[in-house]
């Protein structure tokens, strides 16, 4: 089938290529460097550092220096224009928000949150290269499939409450990529096993490969 959607900017193309946006959220960002190393080694090359984590801005800057070229680091839970500016200044390559208005007019790709068809359409009309379907956990992949019927030009990033076992189904329904937080990161940010994290990351990467094969 011919894809009539507009070409993606390089950052958004890298997010889609990763297939997974790893959402790093914790009380503090102290463990994010070690977590990021594990995720990138497994093949997850799009990371979102949520600004609700203490030290998030510093973590974004550190990860930009730490991780190899080809890894894209973004800021999540961006709720004010001041947050957006601080994240961009720290080196964030993209911004993610559960809402729309705070991301309009920023200098990096922005993925606003939407839930209803009207919200998804509005987010797309604002210029968003990807629209975050949030919270996706209470929905089913069939909802995304139904959305893409009348809105085939919108690239959608389901996020929030997606389990590892659901990744392939969401991608098969037409997701451009999926955002994974707790089911992927687990307790790794609060002292949990990095070996277990590596296992979950491999499962996630394998699910993307399976869905796209």
TrEMBL record:
One Pfam match: Aldolase
Entry annotated with the keyword tRNA processing: no
Domain of life of the source: Bacteria
Pathway: Carbohydrate acid metabolism
SUPFAM superfamilies for the chain: Aldolase
CDD domains from the UniProt entry: KDPG_aldolase
Single GO MF descriptor: lyase activity
Gene3D superfamilies hit by this protein: Aldolase class I
Keyword terms of this UniProt record: Carbohydrate metabolism, Lyase
Family under the similarity heading: Belongs to the KHG/KDPG aldolase family.
Subunit structure, interactors included: Homotrimer.
Name of the protein in its database record: 2-keto-3-deoxy-phosphogluconate aldolase
Organism: Actinoplanes siamensis
């Amino acid at each position: 089938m011919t894809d009539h959607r507009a070409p993606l900017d390089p950052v958004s193309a890298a997010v889609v290529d990763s297939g997974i946006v790893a959402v790093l959220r914790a009380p503090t960002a102290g463990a994010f460097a070690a977590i990021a190393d594990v995720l990138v080694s497994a093949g997850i090359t799009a990371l979102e550092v949520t600004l609700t984590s203490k030290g998030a801005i510093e973590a974004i800057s550190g990860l930009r220096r730490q991780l190899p070229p080809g890894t894209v680091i973004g800021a999540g839970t961006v709720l004010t224009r001041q947050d957006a500016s601080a994240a961009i200044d720290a080196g964030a390559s993209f911004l993610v928000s559960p809402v729309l208005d705070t991301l309009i007019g920023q200098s990096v790709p922005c993925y606003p949150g939407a839930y209803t068809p009207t919200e998804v359409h509005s987010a797309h009309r604002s210029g968003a290269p990807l629209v975050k379907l949030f919270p996706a956990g209470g929905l089913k992949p069939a909802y995304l499939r139904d959305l893409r019927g009348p809105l085939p030009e919108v690239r959608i990033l389901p996020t929030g409450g997606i389990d590892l076992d659901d990744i392939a189904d969401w991608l098969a329904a037409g997701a451009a990529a999926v955002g994974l937080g707790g089911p992927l990161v687990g307790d790794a940010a609060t002292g949990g096993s990095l070996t277990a994290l590596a296992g979950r990351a491999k499962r996630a990467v394998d699910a993307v490969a399976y869905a796209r094969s």
